[in-house]
Amino acid sequence: MSRAEPAFRRGPFDRLRDWLPKLVLSPTIAIVAIFVYGFILFTLYLSFTDSRILPSFGWVGMKNYENLFRIRAWDTAVTNLVIFGVLYIAVCCALGLLLAILLDQRIRAEGFIRTIYLYPMALSFIVTGVAWKWFLDPGIGLEAVVRGWGWESFAFDWIKNGDMAIYTIVIAAVWQTSGFVMAMFLAGLRGIDGEMLKAAQIDGASTLALYRRIVIPQLRPAFMSAFVVLAHMAIKSYDLVIALTGGGPGTATELPATFMYSYTFTRNQMGIGAASAVIMLMTIAAIIVPYLWSELREKS
Amino acid sequence: MPTDFTSQAVTAGTGTPAPIRKRRRTAAAPRVILYLILALFCVYYLLPLCVMVVNSLKPLGEITAGGMMALPEQWTLAPWSSAWSTAQVGVDATGLRPYFVNSILMVVPAVAISTILGALNGYVLTKWTFRGATLLFGLVLFGCFIPFQIVLIPMARMLGLMGIAGTVPGLVFVHLVYGIGFSTLYFRNYYAAFPTELVRAAQIDGAGFFTIFRRILLPSSGPIAVVCIIWQFTNIWNDFLFGASFSDFDSQPMTVALNNLVQSSTGVKEYNVHFAGAIMAALPTLLVYVVAGRFFVRGLMAGSVKG
Amino acid sequence: MGFLEIDRATKSYGAVKVLHETDISIDEGEFLVLVGPSGCGKSTLLNMIAGLEEVSSGDIRIKGRSMNGVKPADRNIAMVFQSYALYPNMTVRGNISFGMEMHKVPKPERETKIAQVADLLQIGQLLDRKPGQLSGGQRQRVAMGRALTRDPDVFLFDEPLSNLDAKLRVDMRMEIKKLHQKLGTTIVYVTHDQIEALTLSTRIAVMYGGYVQQMGTPREIYDNPANLFVAGFMGSPSMNLFPARVVDAGGAPAAEFTLAGGETALLPFAGDALAAQQGRDIVLGIRPEAITDEGGADRNSRAVHVVESPIEITEPAGSDTFVVTQWGGRDAVGRFRADVPARAGDRFAFAVNMEKAVVFDPETETRIA
Fold first, then answer.
1. Is the model's pLDDT at B116 over the cut of 50?
2. Of C257 and A232, more confident
């Protein structure tokens, strides 16, 4: 480097000026480093220890993971997650796409209808859970009401039925989120070039063909986003289960998130709880990391 | 990344009419069916809310008698006053009022601080960018998406060490820590579209780091600040996991208290009181949604989609 | 020693070198235009002069003072941006006064200065408007006004006219030139438009691929381009460049090239720089205005030669007609007087002023005569 001597001596103040942006960023970096990555490492470590009610540092290797996969409740939780996740994502996407297409037909009062479809997203899952808990309760809810109307043999007791209770979670979750998926697809639809649609119509495409062949294939990014968001919400689902069924009846609606909580804090099996949290993290990371990677790389 | 999607989201959220789609002859019958279907879904989405409202205004007896879908025969506000000030929540018969106050005390500082930090972070990451900034941002962003179960155990210890375990300030801190990612995301994407030439012009004019932020960027940041505040408010108000994990009886937020009210196994289940309480817990975010719906949608889209 | 000196300055981003070692020196009051296609390094160089980007090596000096490590605000420069960079939340007055405010100029002085500048640029009636309410030309004036309050040593312009429509661009170009003549401030001006470069500058640096290809007065650049790039880039319509071969024609060197039908034509060179180079392949460069109809040829030239060649198309442009033929397998454009009855398909006499011809080496692409 053949730099000439600067005309001004650079004082400590100038150096501060150069560092100011990084200084401003540093609290966030520190917070994320400690409270996200540090904590992840800590929990990862705990998952290899014999921690019970309190963290302890006796190394037990993979034992917690081995035990975890032998616990029936975990098995139930994972199976439930698969059922819940697949149905939740599929129904939300189907319903969201249908509603978006219907709303895209130059509907009068579109804004009003959209507002109604979307408002559940503003609610807490606890509120949603309470509403559906009593609405689906056979004693006072839908079943009782229909019977009261005269259909005496009507039965809808899924929420009390160990085999069916997981589907009530799907019902409530779909109610809460499908409007949001609708909004995502609607945004995607609105982003499609109108001239291309005109061209397709001139080519003689029917409305059905227009959507099937031209519009829906172009919604791929919206599908991608919807999938990532929904999958991530499914894996994190905790509040809704707690409010709607409390994980019951029995352990019928246990999900990994509730499993982790109860093993860690009420059953005092912290090592196993940590192991289950690590598995949740890895599942989400498998979905989110490639997504973030592609999104951030595109930009730069 | 996100910006393009955000702009689409705005279109979806602001009621811009659909691009003119030429229809071949609009037959009347399909239109009627179309509106019928849309109306049916309106009922689907509104029904649970209506059930809650209606049943929070009738005596318990009418509900247990199978009249959940009927309008009250006898209108009453008693369930509301009970839920607010006298119902049994946990061990005390305090109603939900103190917990509502807890939630407010938790939400306001957490939202304010995370928004300010997010704005500064977004400013640095777009206008004073450096090698590795994108990677750093990616790492921050990933923090938004982790299942929070992974941090529960160490966070419980950390709050203890900091002496704020089981307090409202403790909850503020937790929400702040895990809220920064999203507020940074919002401001970064917004400021990325802000012309860098303005910053350069201000540099030549002699403005420093904070002056440029305060005088040049901040005056144009209104829209994104609203989005960010709404998002953070909704998220933190609606949180249950952190509230349930890190609060004591006297520092519980509204969601946790509501759950306790509903799940309490002692005595008669007062469904009407539960519904009244649920509406109370939902009211602040619903209000935000009704008043600033389009910002809410924008936040939702940018926030959850992007990563 | 020059007023503004760029001394072996380079710029790299990591391993990518966007500006190779560059030396430029201009005197006080000069109007230097950096011109080149996008990505040539001209804006990077301007930003380095402004201090918005650091030099990777070398030095930039203004009035003999090294600018390394000096903040943009302390370099006593002013800059007009392509997008004008007016602060959207401030009025025109606020925009103009912001820089003085930052330099702690007292209020009364600021007011005087604003009034002066507003008067000079005739924007007095706009002072209380916001930038959003101004037209493109008005924004341009405000941006210049903001820069003028600084009494800068060097005035930097970054493609200031590229966002204006064609007519306004010509008007503003003239105004910038007038302003320069009135104020006599040193100006560095970046553009990709070679006409702006030729009309405004006292000195041009033609840049390409991170190198200064040629530096000189507009006349030098136009008449004596240093290489094929400069020859092709400067001038509109651009210089005709076509392959030819040096041959001996009666003891003097001449250029031989093919016409459309396969026959060959000869154009004797004006000088004998290529006398000893028979058989050498060259690229011959002749500007359109040096290829005319016979009656329109430059009477002062002693080297006008006629080539009979079939016309491919004609492009009447009002004042002139551009006539296209095929020389050396390339389109060659001549500039004929408008009333010459040249028609496509005709075989016509093209008068070439060989005093204006330049010759390049096809391998090195540099000028050899």
1. yes
2. C257
Across the interface, do C66 and A7 touch by the CB < 8 Å criterion? yes
> Chains that contact A by 3+ CB pairs under 8 Å?
B, C
The CA-CA-CA angle for residues C20, C26, C29, to 5°, reads 140
Give all strands of the β-sheet with C358-360 in edge-to-edge order. C264-268, C252-258, C240-249, C281-286, C358-360
Number of Cβ within 10 Å of residue B15's Cβ equals 14
User: Which residues lie below 8 Å from residue A212, measured CB to CB, with a gap of 6+?
Assistant: none
Which band of pLDDT confidence, cut at 50, 70 and 90, is reported for residue B301? low
Q: Classify residue C13 by burial, with Cβ atoms within 10 Å: 0-12, 13-18, 19+.
A: exposed
Q: Which of B247, B235, B208, B203 is nearest to B303 (CA)?
A: B235
* Inter-residue contact A154 to A143 (CB < 8 Å): yes
Backbone angles phi and psi of C367, in degrees to 5: -80, 135
Determine, for residues C68 and A2 on separate chains, whether the beta-carbon distance falls below 8 Å. no
Instruction: Round the average pLDDT of chain A to a whole number and report it.
Output: 86
Q: What is the pLDDT of residues C64-114, one digit of tens each?
A: 999 988 888 889 999 999 888 899 889 999 999 998 988 889 999 999 999
Which residue in this structure is represented by tokens 């995301």?
A: B185
Residue of B201, B207, B211 with shortest CB distance to C79: B201
Residue A281 and residue B150: Cβ atoms within 8 Å?
A: yes
Contact indicator for A295, B1 with CB cutoff of 8 Å: yes
The domain segmentation of chain C, as residue ranges, is: 4-233, 242-360
What residue numbers bound the domain in which B118 lies?
Answer: 80-306
Q: How far apart are CA B274 and CA B263, in angstroms?
A: 10
pLDDT attached to residue A106:
83
- Are A50 and A60 contacting, i.e. CB atoms less than 8 angstroms apart? yes
Q: Model's pTM, two decimal places?
A: 0.83
Q: Determine whether the interchain pair A7/C8 forms a contact, defined as Cβ–Cβ distance below 8 Å.
A: no
Q: What is the DSSP string of B3-72?
A: HHHHHHHHHHHHTPPPP----SS--HHHHHHHHHHHHHHHHHHHHHHHHHHHHTTS-HHHHHTT-TTSPP
**Beta strands C57-62 and C313-316, pairing class:** unpaired
Q: What is the ipTM of this complex?
A: 0.86
CA distances from C39 to C207, C211, C225 (A): 9, 11, 21
Chain A residue whose CA is closest to B123: A21
A295 lies in which domain range? 71-299
pLDDT > 90? residue C201: yes
Q: Please give the tally of structural domains in chain B.
A: 1
User: How far apart (Å, rounded) are the C-alpha atoms in residues B186 and B36?
Assistant: 38
- Does B205 contact C at CB distance below 8 Å? yes
Report how far residue B262's alpha carbon sits from residue A19's, in angstroms, rounded to the nearest whole number: 53
3-state secondary structure (DSSP) of residue C366: strand
Q: Is residue B55 part of a domain?
A: no
C4 close to C186: Cβ distance less than 8 angstroms:
yes
**Would strands C252-258 and C240-249 be described as parallel, antiparallel, or unpaired?**
antiparallel
Chains interfacing with C (3 or more CB pairs < 8 Å): A, B
What's the CATH code, domain C242-360? 2.40.50.140
Q: Can you name the CATH fold of C4-233?
A: Rossmann fold (3.40.50)
Contact A183 B285 (CB under 8 A): no
